[in-house]
Amino acid sequence: MPLEWIAIVAAAVYGAAAGAVLPRAAYRLSVEPGQPWRDSCPQGHPLGGGVRAVLGPAVCGACVGEGAPHEPYRGGRGALALVGALVCAGLAAAVGVRPELAVWLLCAPLALLLAAVDLAVMRLPDLLTLPLAAGTAALLGLAALLPGAGGSWRRALLGGLVLAGAFFALFVISPRAVAFGDVKLALSVGVALGWYGWPVLFAGAFLGFLLAAGYGVALVLTGRARRSSALAFGPFMVLGAAAGVALGGLAV
Questions:
Q1: Which UniProt keywords apply (predicted)?
Q2: Is the separation of the CB atoms in 201 and 190 below 8 Å?
Q3: Structural contact between residues 240 and 205, judged by C-beta atoms closer than 8 angstroms
């Protein structure tokens, strides 16, 4: 089997495994602004500490031990695993065996978790957005030092500043349309897209707005939302970034 196919299959398995352990973290972080992170299941059993309290399926062992049905207190495990597998496999197919592929695969689960939390409570926590921005920039800096890298680290950093600045301007103009969490997520998105060049950055950012607009129109037409209804923009920023990175990888 060619190395490229091995990378695609391995990325798909990794993405599925990473997505499958996100439901517990998504449950804990899906709270309204100002509320503490959840530390117990819906029945009040503590989730404990360590890695097992953060990562894993959203099933409470204490509830099961008491004879309660073995049902998750938060769904989406299958969906997160499927999306994780598709995104990671797509990135591997588009980017190929280049140093930056490892960066995209490491950042993908965190971006997926951000999208899940934003869909649940329309919030992008600093606990995720800021480490994602710093981690993406630092890891791309390391990737730039390796042979075969397909982008520019300096341009990636500038791209993050430019896109975050543009989102900040939109936030000042219309806080209802763009939240400050979107501004912080734009740092990561801009760094990732800027790695492959300005056309990729503009394409990825535009795709995010286009996908969000299409989804919003569909909700209005089906009667599930009004024109004034708020919309979680983070998932579409993540989708646009993933599509832009894939296009950039194919173009290199």
A1: Membrane, Transmembrane, Transmembrane helix
A2: yes
A3: yes
Check: pTM over 0.85? Answer yes or no: yes
Cβ atoms of residues 179 and 233 within 8 Å: yes
Q: What is the pLDDT of residues 185-220, one digit of tens each?
A: 999 999 999 999 999 999 999 999 999 999 988 888
Q: Yes or no: say if 236 and 211 are a contact pair by the CB < 8 Å rule.
A: yes
What is the DSSP annotation of 20-42? Answer: HT-HHHHHHH---TTSPPP-B-T
Q: Is 46 helix (H, G, I), strand (E, B) or coil?
A: strand
Contact 162, 201 (CB under 8 A): yes
pLDDT in tens, 16-55: 999 999 999 999 999 988 888 988 888 888 887 777 778 8
Collapsed DSSP state (helix, strand, coil) of residue 142: helix
- Count other Cβ atoms within 10 Å, centred on residue 124: 25
Up-side HSE of residue 215: CA atoms within 13 Å toward CB? 17
Contact 196/248 with Cβ under 8 angstroms?
A: yes
> For residue 2, how many C-alpha atoms fall within 13 Å in the half-sphere facing its CB?
6
